[in-house]
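During the reporting period the student researcher (J.K.) took over the structure-prediction task from the postdoctoral fellow and processed the backlog of single-chain submissions. One of the processed entries is reproduced below for the supervisory committee.
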Amino acid sequence: MLEEYTSLFFVILPVVAFLYASVGHGGASGYLALMALFSFPTETMKPTALLLNLFVAGVSFYHYYKEGHFHKKLFLSFSIASIPMAFLGGTMSIPTSLYKKILAGLLIFAILKMLNVFGKESNANKDFKVGLGIVAGAVIGFFSGLIGIGGGIILTPIILLMSWGNMKQAAGVSALFIWVNSLAGLLGQLSSGVQLHKESFWLVVVALFGGFLGSYYGSKKLNNQVLRYVLAFVLLIACVKLVLT
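J.K. obtained the following structure tokens:
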């Protein structure tokens, strides 16, 4: 499989991983867009994206957790229902074009919010509603497994828009959320007969390089405002991917 793709793919892949990992994401939406651009076989795209997610989101969580940016209560509330729903979504294969367009619209709103178009975000965190977290996690988990993403591209804006945590807390929670959902979604796909090509593990090495650097600088060096701009850019990439594919 690898010999069919140009060296340009292997140059762009770690850059995508760097951008996503810097905000605590695994990068599945970016990987899917990149693989579509380089005409990867459709049947290999979802499992490969989730495999890359596992490693990049894992190293992202390590860095953000090490720097004290992990909110355990937020994670548990979102993940308790998302894990089984991600597995369920991973077993299904249905048309998702309408969902992608709706999600793109929601992400555009999130981008505008990240850029303070609707006013600056409050620095004070609001009380977190566990019930809302469980419901949101279930919905995000299902669609994550269905499409082949980890769900951080949706979860991070929700945490920020609801003022349940700051940028780095959202990144720390999203990183582990993405990891567990990616694992559940991948297991769901494998259980339904989808195969994971062994060559995909070579892509892990390339993506992991960018992901390690991105999560390191995101957790240590970049301030919250810079991360918000990076996240807005990442969300924009996801929107373009959702509209065009």
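The committee noted the following: The chain has one domain: 2-244.
J.K. will present the remaining backlog at the next meeting.
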